[in-house]
Amino acid sequence: MKFFIDTANLDQIRQAQELGILDGVTTNPSLMAKEGISGDAAVKGHYVAICEIVDGDVSAEVISTDYEGMIAEGKILADLHPNIVVKVPAIVDGIKAIRWFTDHGIRTNCTLIFSAGQALLAAKAGASYVSPFVGRLDDISSDGLHLIEKIRAIYDNYDFGTEILAASVRHTMHIIECAEIGADIMTGPLSAIVGLMKHPLTDSGLKQFLADHAKANN
Ligand code: E4P
């Protein structure tokens, strides 16, 4: 399972990179705005800065919602760095744009996936990744993990090459369950990634080992 970090914060990306387990980064317009990145040049510069930290795919989202606009924007984003993957929303024009990008060798991440049907069409259009939003479905008392299971079954039935990028992952159990289901990738916050290492028995066991070592060596 690949691990992506879902942030535009360079410090957190660096910290995740230093763990030695990072495979890529996802961003979205809200995450960029949260870091105070605004204006065309600053946004592009920030994507390049992220690509220089991580040797892996970096999703950069288009703002346009019409076919022509998405193509124009996506071409510029893809030209910024070979690791950029153009993030396109799961709307009708988005599917048409994904087909165009696929036919022109530009990799895509179809985002805002909330149904198996959206994931099926994105795969047929040749999306490199689909991003089903687990946490946002859970937020409305739906079952985000069940959607991952359904997409896994559909993609396996037909050998689609599109990778399932479980997004809107909020906590460590989401990560574990996505791994059990067979999501190809998960993208989540640094806290959820680091949280995988937390166990009280590890902490108490280590404390005891160090205390015994100190006693024996005094
Ligand atoms: C996915 O690529 C999105 O950036 C992200 O995972 C959304 O997560 P959220 O629902 O926590 O905002």
Describe the structure.
The protein has a single domain, classed as TIM Barrel (Alpha-Beta Barrel). With 218 residues, the protein is an alpha/beta fold. The chain has an eight-stranded parallel β-barrel, surrounded by seven helices. The chain has helices at residues 10-19, 29-34, 40-53, 67-80, 92-103, 116-124, 134-139, 144-158, 172-181, 190-195, 200-216, and strands at 2-6, 24-26, 57-61, 84-89, 108-113, 129-132, 163-166, 185-188. The chain is 55% helix and 17% strand. The protein contains eleven helices and eight strands. α6 links the parallel β5 (108-113) and β6 (129-132). Bound molecules: erythose-4-phosphate. Erythose-4-phosphate (E4P) binds at residues 6, 26, 28, 111, 131, 133, 135-136, 167-168, 187.
Keywords:
218 residues; alpha/beta; TIM Barrel; 8-stranded parallel barrel; binds erythose-4-phosphate
Produce the secondary structure layout.
Elements: E1 2-6, H1 10-19, E2 24-26, H2 29-34, H3 40-53, E3 57-61, H4 67-80, E4 84-89, H5 92-103, E5 108-113, H6 116-124, E6 129-132, H7 134-139, H8 144-158, E7 163-166, H9 172-181, E8 185-188, H10 190-195, H11 200-216
Helix pairs in contact: 4-5, 6-8, 8-9
Bound molecules: erythose-4-phosphate (E4P).
Q: CATH top level?
A: Alpha Beta
For the biggest β-sheet, the strand order reads 1-2-3-4-5-6-7-8
CATH architecture: Alpha-Beta Barrel
Helices and strands, in order, run as: EHEHHEHEHEHEHHEHEHH
**Distance, first to last CA:** 45 Å
Helix content: 40-55%
Structural class: alpha/beta
- Small-molecule binders: erythose-4-phosphate
Main β-sheet: number of strands, strand sense, barrel status?
A: 8 strands, parallel, barrel
As a whole number of angstroms, the C-alpha radius of gyration is 19 Å
Average pLDDT, all residues: 98
Give a count of the beta strands, DSSP E runs of length 2 or more. 8
Strand content: 15-25%
Low-confidence stretches: none
- Give the number of domains: 1
Helical stretch tally: 11
